[in-house]
């Protein structure tokens, strides 16, 4: 896949010194998932998925419980899932996923973040065709060969299995997320360094230093927006 997943996640975590930002985004995502079905992860796959992600980001239990209890409370807050696509410096590409209770506010804020940081919004489909929806898992304590063998025994085909630093990273079709997860859990693997449904660029680009500085400001501006949940891009940010 050509993407150093651990490096990207560590870079993001180091930039998120204000972890309350990360936690608040997870709280909203958990609330929306719990509202969409039963507030029980065993019967609500969307909730189960976001809780697995939250675990890899060390979201505190009290934040998770508070979001689920809020969903049980029957509040009438409605949120829309939105996706924006756009271009950054030197033709770099970005996909922005948002959850919002005010579509006009979110669209205006996302457009402003692009415009103030060397980018511009694109139309739907202008960028996403260059990305692949992908399920990604990271585990420790196994070799790539061992992981391949256990997935083959579970009759699961994956796109790629790579050893990256201290982890084995599994890339699979998005509809195989729960199957891969269960295959691991059936052999006692319940802790993941990564458990994501994500968008991975088919080809990464490298920016000159000045453009990369501007691009990172664009990423920060987008991720600082309250309604933005995740930002995907095709830039190799290096080590």
From TrEMBL:
It is found in: Cytoplasm. It comes from the Bacteria. Keywords: Cytoplasm, DNA-binding, Transcription, Transcription regulation. Residues 79-235 form the TACO1/YebC-like second and third domain. One of its GO terms (molecular function) is DNA binding. Residues 3-74 form the TACO1/YebC-like N-terminal domain. It holds the Pfam family TACO1_YebC_N. Belongs to the TACO1 family. YeeN subfamily. HAMAP family: Transcrip_reg_TACO1, Transcrip_reg_TACO1_YeeN. This is Probable transcriptional regulatory protein ACFYKX_21100. It comes from Cytobacillus spartinae.
């Amino acid at each position: 896949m050509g993407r150093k997943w651990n490096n990207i996640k560590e870079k993001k975590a180091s930039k998120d010194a204000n972890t309350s930002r990360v936690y608040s985004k997870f709280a909203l995502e958990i609330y929306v998932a719990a509202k969409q079905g039963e507030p029980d992860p065993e019967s609500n796959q969307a909730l189960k998925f976001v809780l697995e992600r939250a675990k890899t980001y060390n979201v505190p239990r009290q934040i998770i419980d508070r979001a689920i209890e809020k969903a049980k409370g029957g509040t009438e807050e409605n949120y829309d899932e939105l996706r924006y696509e756009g271009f950054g410096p030197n033709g770099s590409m970005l996909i922005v996923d948002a959850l919002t209770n005010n579509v006009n506010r979110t669209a205006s804020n996302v457009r402003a973040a692009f415009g103030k940081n060397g980018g511009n919004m694109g139309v739907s489909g202008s960028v996403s065709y260059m990305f692949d929806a992908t399920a990604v898992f990271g585990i420790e304590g196994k070799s790539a060969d061992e992981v391949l063998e256990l997935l083959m025994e579970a009759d699961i085909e994956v796109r790629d299995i790579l050893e990256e630093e201290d982890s084995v990273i599994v890339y699979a079709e998005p509809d195989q997320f729960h199957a891969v997860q269960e295959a691991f859990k059936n052999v006692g693997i319940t802790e993941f360094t990564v458990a994501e449904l994500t968008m991975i660029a088919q080809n990464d680009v490298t920016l000159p230093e000045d453009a990369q500085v501007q691009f990172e400001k664009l990423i920060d501006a987008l991720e600082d927006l309250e309604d933005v949940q995740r930002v995907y891009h095709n830039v190799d940010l290096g080590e």
